[in-house]
């Protein structure tokens, strides 16, 4: 019997109702269905007294979600999609993402398109798109204290945010660079349209194999976003007396002390998305962010005197 999964946001009534309706539909079609909530992919919060409050990245898989699962449907907003990616990426389960939230930048379709989308998926009429993820680790004395898979970004800053921090950053085997800023962001191409974009970073097409480093409100005109190959790891050494806060994908995170280092590298796991038509990144930019819309006042022709 073919197997499908459903991951839903259990604090949204519409997502809950749709999840159980979809479960019944798939079972009538002869599919085995395994359901879970997106809560299992929410990152734990470490505290100074308990710095190891985390679950290893490859241990977040919900029961019943395995290599036999053909696909999983995600019902929620971008936060649920991010959580679902952390849960299933190690098993390479394709995700059909349905927007029951607001912006839904990471979702494939809206809720009213679900019936036709399911028919299309059951008939195998879809493409798969891989999105690179990063592994973020806190290391102290060669021991991993905390780690997480990230589809979007890692943010490291002082608590509260509005306070100057000093960082030493090393990309691969290159020399250390010094950055003075309110914080730093390490972003994937997928995350380039999230916090990284708001912080002044460039938009990067999903298929480009890079990471970007963005200082938040840097204390220098020379400190600007840097794009590097994702084949090289990035190490961040906090050069502060106070502890810092690290947040991954806008979710929970952990404290970082002066004795710690943050280690970021491209994950061996990729998020895999079901695309019902050929991926069109610039169309998404136009529809969701208004990029490239025609100017209303653009003249149709130029009249010469």
UniProtKB/TrEMBL annotation:
UniProt-listed Pfam families: NAD_kinase, NAD_kinase_C
Root EC class: transferase
Cited Gene3D superfamilies: Probable inorganic polyphosphate/atp-NAD kinase, domain 1 (3.40.50.10330), Probable inorganic polyphosphate/atp-NAD kinase, domain 2 (2.60.200.30)
Binding residues for NAD(+): 78-79, 152-153, 182, 251
Domain of life, per lineage: Bacteria
Gene Ontology molecular-function annotations: ATP binding; metal ion binding; NAD binding; NAD+ kinase activity
Cofactor dependency: a divalent metal cation
UniProt-listed InterPro entries: ATP-NAD_kinase_N (IPR017438), ATP-NAD_kinase_PpnK-typ_C (IPR017437), NAD/diacylglycerol_kinase_sf (IPR016064), NADK (IPR002504)
Role played: Involved in the regulation of the intracellular balance of NAD and NADP, and is a key enzyme in the biosynthesis of NADP. Catalyzes specifically the phosphorylation on 2'-hydroxyl of the adenosine moiety of NAD to yield NADP.
Protein known as: NAD kinase
């Amino acid at each position: 019997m073919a197997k499908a999964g459903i991951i839903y946001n259990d604090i949204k009534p519409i997502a809950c109702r749709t999840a159980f309706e979809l479960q019944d539909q798939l079972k009538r079609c002869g599919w085995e269905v395994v359901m879970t909530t997106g809560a299992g992919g929410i990152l734990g919060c470490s505290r100074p007294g308990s710095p190891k409050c985390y679950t290893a990245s490859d241990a977040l898989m919900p029961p019943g979600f395995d290599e036999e699962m053909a696909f999983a449907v995600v019902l929620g907003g971008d936060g649920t999609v991010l959580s679902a990616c952390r849960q299933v990426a190690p098993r390479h389960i394709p995700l059909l993402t349905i927007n029951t939230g607001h912006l839904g930048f990471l979702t494939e379709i809206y809720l009213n398109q679900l019936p036709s989308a399911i028919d299309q998926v059951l008939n195998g009429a879809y493409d798969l798109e891989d999105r690179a993820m990063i592994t973020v680790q806190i290391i102290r004395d060669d021991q991993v204290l905390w780690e997480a898979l990230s589809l979007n970004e890692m943010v490291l800053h002082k608590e509260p945010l509005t306070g100057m921090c000093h960082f030493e950053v090393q990309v691969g085997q290159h020399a250390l660079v010094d950055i003075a800023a309110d914080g730093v962001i390490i972003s994937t191409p997928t995350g380039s349209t999230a916090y990284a974009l708001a912080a002044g970073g460039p938009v990067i097409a999903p298929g480009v194999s890079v990471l970007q480093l963005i200082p938040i409100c840097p204390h220098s005109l020379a400190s600007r976003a840097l794009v590097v190959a994702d084949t090289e790891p990035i190490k961040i050494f906090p050069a502060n007396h106070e502890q810092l806060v690290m947040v991954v994908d806008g979710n929970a995170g952990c404290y970082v002390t002066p004795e710690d280092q943050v280690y970021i590298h491209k994950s061996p796991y990729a998020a895999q998305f079901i695309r019902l038509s050929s991926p069109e990144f610039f169309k998404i930019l136009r529809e969701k962010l208004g990029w490239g819309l025609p100017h209303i006042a653009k003249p149709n022709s130029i009249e010469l005197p």
